[in-house]
Design a protein that fits this description.
Strand order of the largest sheet: 3-4-5-6-7
Number of strands: 9
Helix content: 10-25%
Length: 190
Amino acid sequence: MGTPGVAYLPGRECGTCTLCCKVMGIVEVDSPRDSWCGHCAIGDGCRIYRERPAPCREFACGYLIWDAIPAHWLPALSGIVIVSELGFRINFYVDADHPDRWRETPYYADIKRLAAVGVADNRQVLVTVGAHVFAIFPQRDVDLGRVASDEQVVTGKRPDGTWGAAKVRDDDPRLQPRDGHPGGALIPLG
């Protein structure tokens, strides 16, 4: 088992955790976000593991691969799946049955710590509960509300020098890659 080409941390494995099969949403198997995939044997694994679609094959849970993520982040315990996205984003997908879990101790402190590192590395840190998204910064959180399927989250410096976030439509020209940064990562806001 596992994702081809991805090394799991020693002692870390999915075990009985199948939360990614609920919170992620996979179009290829008609599995919406925050609903258990019809192919998931909850607490056991994927019933079509050998034939699973590409997004499932390529997925690597942050708990399994990042040493910066403490053991209490096992998704089956935390109710949160950590994902690297688009090369510049860390997204914490929260089980909608426990929408405020990310605000609890020790998770919130860990998210804020990663937000400080993220800002320093020009990365976004988001918390997603269903379609509701929060952009997380060291000094504040930005509630972006529902982010539609034709929108993206952008972050950047505001005129006052603080970090901010906004949601923009997919066709917004500011999303085009520039200056060595992927589109959507950081744009001036204001």
